[in-house]
């Protein structure tokens, strides 16, 4: 696609409507309602405001520091990547004038030489021009050893970064790396000038008052309550059509739903409407409710460095004692489907042939008996001085997960395992407690893939353990030479059919090792106020605001 096509970054409103009903693999989502119509009048200037409710508080505003999904809600509104990925898994140009490909000469046939042409006339929110120097700075920041980077994988292969002109940058890859386009699609570009003269980039003023090129500008943050953004009327792409965009955080999911019912929030974002409210929500006047698959997989995660979990038999036994189907039926009203993989079922790379989970307390007990975990006087098993006792944590206020914990606590107790519950506020839970592996076990939902790409180096490579000085989200401290090799091999293959064999095997290995117990892939219950326009589900991103530039009131 050439720059002369003038395709706006992120689908415009007409294109967004065309995309509706699609997921990464072209899956049609039945019953998906329309948000406005293609004939709706686009406002000449931004008007009105939208309030989106999140159950967690965004706290990391530099998109390259360690962060979680909810922070990206803000990142998508404030920043832009070089190119993005749409619901069908296709890349589209962003700050790049065109998506680099082998066909257009942007990537050499061997995958090693890259040339990216940038849009002209783009400015940062403070009025300064966006140039190739900002792209160079961003990639170098991500691999700076003194910076607490959320992702070095892929960027650490970039060599000879060269600014050819203000609108062109080139580099060489140290080796072919097929996931890199998807990594770039989730890499927001930040302004070099915002860090000039800053000794410690981890503590830069920018990190609390971000400057981007995106459709909305930072206004203010009220900790514990909300974040306010205002329209960037100089935005280079389509929109924005809203004058103000508000993120409101409501940790209690029941209160989140109540505020949606009352009209205090316009859109229900992360963690959406809980399934127990689904039937009632469908009947609400002035609200539109939709049912959507998500790329997120819910799991019970182990800290593999804790002595209780170094024995595979313990992890296997706990899986047998996890009553997944009852949890899904009783708490989630049967909406999500159980899974054995971290890969969404809609992915081309999904492995449907993994061993199926079996809830069986007798098998769980037998595994522990055979492995030498003997019940003590209090009924709790122990081996070599280690009691089979641990804490489990998740976000306080998430009543569904709290009920899941009670199910687990009871079942685990029946096989001689003691599980205590220790929940924390979202900002604490998903800060260093999670990122630096300070937990025993956690109930968590994660999007493991980077867009449509199957690479999971950020989660499974042994060099991605933050608690051991790595950069990544291998918070369970999972280290497997077999997995490291598969991830390395898979990153060298560019033909999807050939790559698939590697990632099918990778899923088999992770399923065998059980660094976490997979429960189900999310099916979220979305909701928005009737008249909201532009919202388009996208299984290839981690948060709903990927195309917030097109949101409007019809």
Helix/strand layout:
Layout: H1 13-19, E1 49-54, H2 69-78, E2 83-85, E3 91-93, E4 113-117, H3 132-142, E5 158-165, E6 168-173, H4 180-185, E7 216-222, E8 226-231, E9 244-249, H5 253-262, E10 267-273, H6 278-282, E11 287-302, H7 312-320, H8 324-331, E12 337-338, H9 361-370, E13 374-375, E14 381-383, E15 386-387, E16 389-393, H10 399-414, E17 418-421, H11 426-429, H12 432-435, E18 441-446, H13 457-460, H14 481-490, H15 496-513, E19 516-529, E20 532-533, E21 552-553
Parallel strand pairs: 1-9, 1-10, 16-17, 16-18
Antiparallel strand pairs: 2-3, 4-6, 5-6, 7-8, 8-9, 10-19, 11-18, 11-19, 12-19, 13-14, 14-15, 20-21
Describe this structure in words.
By secondary structure, the chain is of the alpha+beta class. It has a domain of 230 residues: Dipeptide-binding Protein, domain 3, CATH 3.10.105.10. The protein contains 15 helices and 21 strands. The strands form 5 sheets. Strands 1, 7, 8, 9, 10, 11, 12, 16, 17, 18 and 19 form an 11-stranded mixed β-sheet that branches. Strands 4-6-5 form a 3-stranded antiparallel β-sheet, with helices on one face. A hairpin with a 5-residue loop joins β2 and β3. The longest helix has 18 residues. It is globular, with a radius of gyration of 23 Å. The N terminus is likely disordered.
């Amino acid at each position: 696609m050439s720059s002369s096509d003038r395709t706006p970054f992120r689908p415009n409103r007409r294109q967004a409507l065309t995309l509706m009903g699609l997921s990464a693999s072209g899956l049609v989502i039945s019953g998906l309602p329309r948000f406005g119509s293609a004939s709706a009048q686009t406002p000449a200037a931004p008007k009105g405001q939208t309030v989106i409710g999140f159950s967690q508080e965004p706290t990391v505003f530099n998109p390259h520091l360690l962060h979680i999904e909810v922070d990206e809600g803000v990142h998508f509104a404030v920043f832009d990547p070089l190119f993005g990925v749409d619901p069908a898994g296709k890349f589209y140009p962003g700050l790049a004038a065109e998506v680099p490909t082998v066909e257009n000469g942007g990537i050499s046939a061997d995958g090693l030489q890259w040339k990216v042409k940038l849009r002209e006339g783009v400015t940062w929110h403070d009025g300064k021009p966006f140039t190739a120097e900002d792209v160079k700075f961003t990639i170098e920041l991500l691999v700076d050893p003194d910076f607490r980077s959320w992702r070095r994988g892929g960027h650490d292969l970039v060599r000879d970064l060269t600014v050819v002109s203000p609108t062109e940058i080139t580099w060489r890859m140290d080796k072919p790396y097929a996931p890199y386009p998807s990594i770039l699609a989730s890499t927001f570009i930040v302004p070099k000038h915002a860090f000039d003269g800053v000794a410690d980039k981890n503590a830069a003023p920018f990190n609390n008052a971000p400057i981007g090129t995106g459709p909305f500008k930072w206004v203010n943050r009220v900790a514990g309550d909300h974040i306010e953004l205002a329209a960037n009327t100089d935005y280079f792409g389509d929109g924005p059509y809203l004058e103000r965009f508000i993120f409101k955080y409501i940790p209690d999911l029941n209160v989140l739903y109540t505020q949606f019912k009352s009209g205090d929030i316009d859109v229900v974002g992360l963690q959406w409407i809980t399934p127990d409210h689904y039937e009632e929500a469908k009947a609400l006047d002035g609200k539109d409710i939709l049912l959507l698959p998500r790329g997120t997989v819910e799991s019970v995660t182990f800290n593999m460095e804790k002595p209780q979990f170094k024995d595979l038999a313990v992890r296997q036994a706990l899986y047998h004692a996890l009553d997944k189907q009852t949890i899904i039926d009783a708490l989630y009203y049967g909406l999500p489907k159980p899974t054995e993989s971290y890969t969404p079922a809609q992915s081309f790379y999904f492995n449907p042939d993994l061993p199926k989970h079996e809830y069986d307390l007798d098998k769980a007990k037998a595994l522990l008996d055979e492995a030498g975990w003997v019940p003590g006087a209090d009924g709790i098993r122990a081996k070599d001085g280690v009691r089979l006792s641990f804490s489990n944590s998740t976000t306080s206020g998430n009543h569904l997960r709290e009920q899941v914990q009670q199910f687990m606590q009871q079942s685990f107790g029946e096989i001689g395992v003691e599980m205590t519950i220790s929940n924390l506020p979202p900002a604490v839970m998903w800060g260093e407690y999670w990122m630096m592996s300070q937990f025993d076990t956690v109930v968590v939902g994660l999007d493991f893939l980077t867009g449509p790409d199957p690479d999971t180096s950020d989660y499974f490579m042994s060099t991605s353990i933050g608690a051991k000085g790595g950069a990544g989200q291998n918070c369970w401290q999972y280290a497997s030479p077999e997995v490291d090799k598969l991830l390395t091999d898979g990153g060298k293959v560019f033909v999807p059919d050939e790559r698939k064999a590697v990632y099918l095997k990778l899923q088999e290995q992770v399923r065998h090792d059980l660094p976490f117990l997979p429960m189900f892939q999310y099916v979220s219950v979305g909701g928005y106020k009737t008249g909201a326009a532009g919202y388009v589900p996208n299984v290839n991103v981690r948060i709903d605001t990927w195309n917030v530039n097109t949101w409007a009131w019809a």
